[in-house]
Write a structure and sequence with these properties.
372 residues, Dehydroquinate synthase-like, alpha domain, alpha/beta, 8 strands, Rossmann fold, 14 helices
């Protein structure tokens, strides 16, 4: 028996066409700031669509559309300053994980008139009375709509770090699979493998509980069963629905169970090698699973008996079918020369602390030698 507590988004709208639910959603506040990326939501017309829905509720809506991939602390500060200028009281993160994480961070800091760097450098906690937060993901992968943290790039220190606070869990999550139809194949692959990594790592996490294990198992089977179809046929409705559901379910699981060494190593590796987060996770995942076999071997056998799937073999085959290399050196020339720099940046708290095998620098080096 195990005691646990869990944290979930306040209200979830899920399913094809559910973006329209925003017009009747219980949004707190009259002045909203949509936070999104520089191109895709504008090009697809989605930004205008969300603005129109929110404006038709009688609210005043503003836009910050300068979020970059792997969003930086500087961008968060710019968006927070805009929120103060417009006196925004609710926020809508529209896009992939970077846009949603930016919105989450802004909602957490904008009332304090501090740089987000101050929270990291001085261990300032995120206040409880954050701005009302809406997450509208357009990718099926990051799980940011489910979590209490925002992953940001601390540019000066060349590392990724997370701003955390229970009040940063979105009050509303709008999960509309139709918004993912326009994702390019590469983004489908990277975000899908990110979601799969969330599902797998939370499944084997030392902090997992009876509920998260059910969520993780469901997410793994959904994603493994739909990834190929979503990649090959971007508008295939069933595959896109299952990928969004798998991503969301995985997000609920890892938000409460934690992750493992893939993320513990992946964040510094991505920062050093300047590679997308999902790509790094995809490459590292089978290597870390093989390293963890002493602790998870029996459960991998149970999983195969229950599903007929050899998890590690299936993940390697998926990567290959989507053009994802077996090693990081296949995505970044000279990666092997950066092994010591990556190891120096690895932290053994947060994600790494839930890995089923207790990690240290020697073990990280062993994994990286195989993965670089």
């Amino acid at each position: 028996m195990k005691n646990f507590s869990m944290l979930f988004p306040g209200r979830v709208y899920f399913g094809n066409g559910c973006l329209e639910k925003l017009k009747d959603a219980p949004i707190r506040g009259r002045r909203g700031l949509i936070i999104t990326g520089k191109h895709s939501s504008k090009k697809s017309g989605l930004l205008d669509r969300v603005k129109k829905i929110l404006k038709n509720t009688g609210r005043e809506i503003f836009v910050f559309d300068d979020v970059e991939p792997e969003v930086s602390v500087e961008t968060v500060d710019k968006a927070a300053e805009l929120a103060r200028r417009y006196r925004a009281d609710f926020f809508a993160g529209l896009g992939g994980g970077s846009a949603i994480d930016c919105a989450k961070a802004v909602s957490g800091i904008y009332r304090d008139r501090l740089s987000v760097k101050d929270y990291f450098d001085s261990n300032i906690p995120v206040r409880r009375d954050t701005g009302f937060l809406i997450a509208i993901p357009t990718t099926a992968g990051t799980g940011s709509e489910s979590t209490r943290n925002a992953v940001l790039t601390y540019t000066e220190k060349q590392k990724k770090t997370s701003l955390r606070g229970d009040s940063m869990v979105p009050s509303i999550a709008v999960m509309d699979p139709e918004l993912t139809y326009s994702m390019p194949k590469k983004i489908t692959a990277y975000t899908g493998m990110d979601a799969l990594t969330h599902a797998v790592e939370s499944y084997f996490s030392s902090n997992a509980n009876e509920i998260t294990e059910i969520l993780s198992f469901k997410a793994i089977t959904l994603i493994l069963g739909s990834m190929s179809a979503a990649y090959k046929k971007p508008s295939e409705k069933t595959a896109r629905y299952n990928m969004m559901l798998g991503s969301f379910t995985a997000g609920l699981a890892f938000a409460n169970a934690g992750l493992g060494a893939v993320h513990g190593i992946g964040h510094p590796a991505g920062a050093v090698l300047k590679l997308p987060h999902g790509l790094v996770n995809a490459v590292l995942l089978p290597h870390v699973l093989e390293f963890n076999l002493s602790a998870i071997g029996a459960r991998l056998i149970q999983f195969k008996k229950a599903t007929g799937i050899d998890m590690i073999k299936k993940i390697r085959a998926l990567n290959k079918s989507m053009g994802i290399p077996g090693k990081l050196s296949g995505a970044c020339k000279g990666a092997a020369k950066k092994i010591e720099e990556i190891i120096e940046r690895v932290e053994y708290s947060a994600s790494m602390s839930y890995n089923p095998v207790i990690m240290d620098a020697v073990k990280v080096r062993q994994i990286l030698k195989g993965a670089l």
